[in-house]
Amino acid sequence: MSRINAQRLMADLRSLAEFGKFGTGVDRISFSPADLEARAWLLSRMREAGLDAAIDSVGNVRGVTKNASRAVVIGSHTDSVPKGGWLDGAMGVVYGLEIARSRLESGRAARLGVDVVSFQDEEGSYFPCLGSRSFCGELTEEDLGRTRTATGESIREAIARAGYAGGAPWCLDRARHVAFLEAHIEQGPRLEAEKSRIGVVTGIVGIRRLKITSAGQADHAGTTPMTMRKDAVRPLLELGHRVHAEFPGLSSLDTVWNIGSLLIQPGAANVVPSSAEMILEWRDTSVEKLDQIEATLMSWISDLNRQPGVELTSTPIARIRPTLMAEPLQTAIEASARAERARLMRMPSGAGHDAMVVGHHLPAGMIFIPSIGGRSHDIVEDTSEEDIVLGCEVMAGVVDGLEAV
Amino acid sequence: MSRINAQRLMADLRSLAEFGKFGTGVDRISFSPADLEARAWLLSRMREAGLDAAIDSVGNVRGVTKNASRAVVIGSHTDSVPKGGWLDGAMGVVYGLEIARSRLESGRAARLGVDVVSFQDEEGSYFPCLGSRSFCGELTEEDLGRTRTATGESIREAIARAGYAGGAPWCLDRARHVAFLEAHIEQGPRLEAEKSRIGVVTGIVGIRRLKITSAGQADHAGTTPMTMRKDAVRPLLELGHRVHAEFPGLSSLDTVWNIGSLLIQPGAANVVPSSAEMILEWRDTSVEKLDQIEATLMSWISDLNRQPGVELTSTPIARIRPTLMAEPLQTAIEASARAERARLMRMPSGAGHDAMVVGHHLPAGMIFIPSIGGRSHDIVEDTSEEDIVLGCEVMAGVVDGLEAV
Question: Where are the alpha helices (DSSP H) in B254-384?
């Protein structure tokens, strides 16, 4: 017997996708007219479900289960990247709505409530995870002054424009909130490739990003003998090759890395490069692994700097700590998936989510469901209806299991 | 006893540097007002010297020794790169003027004349070595239709604007012309580093330039496992590193190579590169060496293409044959330098010159003199007065030696 109403779940998801509809996807960046309309719609759907709903002082839409002393927070975000997909974020919010509603109907809400939330601006049009940071008390007055590059509007101005300035901030309540659950599309190809339907997220990877700058000297590439050159690109080619050749031996199967940018000055075929700049990032859920890779890189850079004519400097440009998902919640998700006879796998999340913020304040669990072709942040993003419904069933089962905790 | 008038040589060089003067250098691109004025000045100086002078149909300024049945052609170019140096090209032309003039004064001109030339547009504002190509009969009607990117003006239009359209083309005369001599600043650091004052050019290097394109697939650099990526940059890092690591073992001391350009799409730190394009060039005076390197590169590219997910293609984008300088002229330059007790070295020219064109039609010899700090194509370009005068003496000695040939 189903814990949720699959038809109602899909109908709500499809209704939500009408706001900012763009082809098969949505263009619903935070604080855009489409985003504000979607929030108003969500607010009314929460009220229709019998939740105590409001939009808070940063634009978080929250629907609290009344007459429950303890609650699981379930949600994600309803803002999108420009020309994004219909499920990224939205699905996790509608799961929360459907599970809260079903529990009110079945009478289980009194044992353990569900507080549903759509966190504001997860995608960071103004500031990534704005809403979940506010929920966790991490947002500063200074943060509210941050401006959106394209328009110059600050977060504070956007809030005022939206009419949210009068709202109370909705904050984490340690006495009430026992856990945070977020479901999300995988945004990668692993579940599909492994024919798994449920991903039990072990953690959200930490990210280290290093800019490596190489100083050389521009010279005529015809008239300057090789031994008299100071070629800024040569050591970066060596370093980049070494990264791809030796990182597999240093890393776990879940570690990923990328050399996505290498800029060369002056960039002409017949001029010895005078300077170059490479950006290298690596991600892992283990701080030890992140540290070990960084130490290895530093030793390689030192090795290179001992070669004549090599002058490399490195600057960290991003350093995001990993967020581990609560082990009991991973076990609970796994148990619920098994009860649904769903093939599952444990996996890290390589991308950021609101659970990355909330997980440092409250036990957090994340469920991934397959992305068709691994695609996301694009209007082609999609997931089969069966997988969407299954994910919600699994999460509803997890909430049932938490009643006894 | 000096064969030339050093004071007059330096005075002419300094007068010429006034045309298009730009700081300590000159901005005298071909067919610019400054270039046209410099040509008019040169024409009158040739006539004052007693030469049969004219500006030909492409703008070459030539001064022919009258009453001589055989002549050495001596010259270079008076056009410059934008904001270039005062000696690049100009020096080789004024050497010709001074040697022709001195030989007329000493009466040696009757035994062997000197035909002085300033070839048009060596630097290629419209078409590299335009003037020497015309002199050698290599210029086509189609070439005259070539346009300068910045202005859209064709060579034919520039010639008409300059008033040169009525002139006769000045062409190589096999019955009269016994050799071509060109002196030039080295444009590199080797003479200075070796404390040599005369470079005996063995040849002008051939250039091979290859564009290597790599096809990949853009993916999220956090959510796509390493084994499921098709990273366009990885194989180019491997290839580029291999080039710098293994070319020294494949090449002669004179071989040079450069990876001056590597463009990555989309070029974001967190996106797996979808495509990349590297430009690699190598230069040598030996066709065999150029071929051997190309074959090796092709085998490395084939090796890489056997790796899963690698898709490299290579396209030749430049293929310039080497030009060997005539061995007897190299010997003659060496003998003349030794007579002047000048420390000398044999060396290839890594840059192109008019001798690169003329050398395929007439025995050609080139003399390099030191560039201070190896600098050129910049207003800081300079050479000591002693080295400038010495170079002209050495060349005058070579011409004396050719009387008997």
Answer: 287-305, 327-339, 354-358
Q: Which fold has domain A6-204+322-402?
A: Aminopeptidase (3.40.630)
pLDDT class of A149 with cuts at 50, 70, 90: confident
Interatomic CA distance for residues A248 and A305, integer angstroms: 24
Q: Which helix or strand (DSSP H or E) is residue B71 part of?
A: strand B71-77
Contact A244 B234 (CB under 8 A): yes
Scanning A189-208 for CB atoms below 8 A from B yields 189-190, 193, 205, 207
Window 153-192 of B, Cβ < 8 Å to A: 186-190
CATH classification number, B206-320, choose in 3.40.50.150, 1.10.1240.10, 3.30.1050.10, 3.30.70.360: 3.30.70.360
Inter-residue contact B362 to B73 (CB < 8 Å): yes
Instruction: Round to whole Å and give the CA distance between B30 and B27.
Output: 10
pLDDT score for B1:
67
Residue A260: count of CB within 10 angstroms of its CB: 24
CA distance A126 to A250: 36
Q: Are A233 and B262 in contact (CB under 8 A)?
A: yes
> pLDDT tens, A132-145?
999 999 999 999 99
CB atoms within 10 A of CB B27: 18
Q: Are A95 and A183 within 8 A, CB to CB?
A: yes
Give Cβ neighbours of residue B125 (< 8 Å, ≥ 6 apart): B29, B30, B31, B79, B148
Angle (CA) B225-B227-B230 rounded to 5° is 95
Interface predicted TM-score (ipTM) of this complex, two decimals: 0.89
pLDDT at B91: 98
Q: What is d(CA A38, CA B245) in angstroms, rounded to the nearest whole number?
A: 58
**Annotated domain spans of chain B:** 6-204+322-402, 206-320
Please count the residue pairs, one from chain A and one from chain B, whose beta carbons lie less than 8 angstroms apart. Answer: 191
Partner B, chain A 355-394, Cβ-Cβ below 8 Å:
374, 376-377
In a 10 Å sphere around its CB, with 0-12 CB exposed, 13-18 middle and 19+ buried, how is residue A267 labelled?
middle
Of A132, A181, A106, nearest in space to A402 by CA: A181
The CA distance from A123 to A352, in Å, is 9
- pLDDT digit string (tens) for B182-208? 999 999 999 999 999 999 999 999 999
Which residues in chain A touch residue B260, judged by CB atoms under 8 angstroms apart? 221, 233, 264, 266-273
- For tokens 């899909």, the residue is A10
Average pLDDT for A246-252: 94
Report CA B402 to chain centroid distance, whole Å: 25
**Per-residue exposure over A194-232, b if at least 16 CB sit within 10 Å of its own CB, e if not:** eebbbbbbbbbbbbbbbbbbbebbbbbbbbbbbebbbbb
Interaxial angle between packed helices A327-339 and A385-402, expressed in degrees from 0 to 180 and rounded to the nearest 10: 120
Whether residues A225 and B253 touch (CB distance < 8 A) is answered with yes
Res. B293: pLDDT tops 80:
yes
In this structure, are residues B99 and B392 in contact, taking their beta carbons and an 8 Å threshold? Answer: yes
Q: How large is the average pLDDT for residues A221-233? A: 95
